[in-house]
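ARCHIVE CARD
SHELF: 3
SLOT: left
DATA:
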Amino acid sequence: MNLLKKHKKEAVPRKKKAITIIGSSLAVVIVAGTAGALFAGSEIMGGNSADKLSGKESSVHTVVEKATEKTTSPKSATADEALPKKEKEYKFKKAKEAEIESVLKNIPALIIINEDGIKEDIIELCNKIRKNEDNSITPIIVISSVKEKEHRIQVLKACVEHYIKAPIDEQYLYYTVKNVIRLLDTNRRVSPLTGLPGNVQIQTEIKKRLLNNDQFSILYVDLDNFKAYNDVYGFLNGDEIIKFTARCVANHLHDTEDESNFVGHIGGDDFVAITANTNCEKICQDIILEFDQGVLKYFNKSDIEKGYLEIPNRKCVIEQFPLTSISIAVVVVDKGRFKNVLEIGESAAQVKHLAKMTPGSTYVIDRRKNI
């Protein structure tokens, strides 16, 4: 049965990239992805701009405009000419140079270091970042006025991905950062089907919040009787339901005021959503409501009227399976309740089992406390 032509292509809502600017006496720029932050050097940033770059409405346009303010020639292209005005993909925060170790706990996606604005030796700083277990593979870009070839080679030997000579060209810096982040998004095991972060980023996101002793909720989402659907309608139509499920979850996690919300795709029909909201009953109810109303378009009229699918088992006996539904197992992670990701997974498996025992779409929330 071919239902594919009935479905319009819809994009899964994307989360903005978080960028944190560290301090008025700043040392390093970190441009971060879904799990990261940014901190910038005083020389490269051109001033104390805590209020201006508060993270409310800023974009990467602001980063590069400020970054080139003191280092580019008057003849250089203006920031308005170099950068798209409608760039809304990145957000900003602020901290101080002394907080580098603290910021690294947020496991940034990309680090840009202004060598001219730091006191520490650039090689030692890069090695320090590489020795940090959680940032051993974080890409590093160095901006420096030192033009000697030997110095550049030594810096690149320190596992630095890119070296940009100052003064900075706006367009070159902008598209270097943008393309590195694009490659990260492509290569960090992002689901090719839904475009959502995969297992590596899911584990990173959970670990980051545990390290910061945050309080949050994790929603483990999967489909019921999905194999039966694939057996009847085929894997291509099954893929459409998976993409529809991704949109349902993302719609109610990313379309909120909480920009720290995260949605990941474990694989198959399994998803994870993370929110700082520990009272997430409405989120679960809204996901289920949208799913149950929308999933029917992936079935033919006959199956909808029957309310089940008929499939022969291995003994050629016809069995009946309910139409595909959705189950959500929620674990509330209170401060100090779990020591690691593994413990959360064990608790989630118990809650997921309870959710699966209830026919139809349902959610179960684990609010148990440590005794």
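SLOT: right
DATA:
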Amino acid sequence: MIYLGQPYSHDNPRVMERRFLIGCGVMAALATRGVRVYAPIGHWHTPAQIFAMPTHAAFWQADNLHMLTKADEFHLLVLAGWDRSVGLKWEFEQARRLLKPIKTVKVVSMQMQPNANDGKQWTLPLIHIDEANVDTLIRGFEHGADSQQQGPGPGEAEVIT
């Protein structure tokens, strides 16, 4: 099983929703390849919204650690703000502590397409998975913690149109 970590929390609820949708797209792309995936954002965003559950990382740490221990690999979804995400940094550190193989996932394209029912449907994203350079990710988290940058970081284009 793949544990898919990604940035989520943000002051703007629209950014959180966008991150949720991108994460769900990656989950779907992996599932259609026969890969089992657990993604806390994909699994818990909707119940948290419906039942007014906490969305901050600290609330979810025990559940996330449990699922990380069960996972075969940790995949880090590179989205704008990944290097400033407290929850993602914690997941990454736990995956390292548990000696999980770490990979990065980048979305190459993901678009809305018209359909017969409501006029909108997401296409499965085209994704690229790489072996992670752990030292580069560590430096990214260190840099991100000091950064007030709000836009995409290096190599982090906004990909949804």
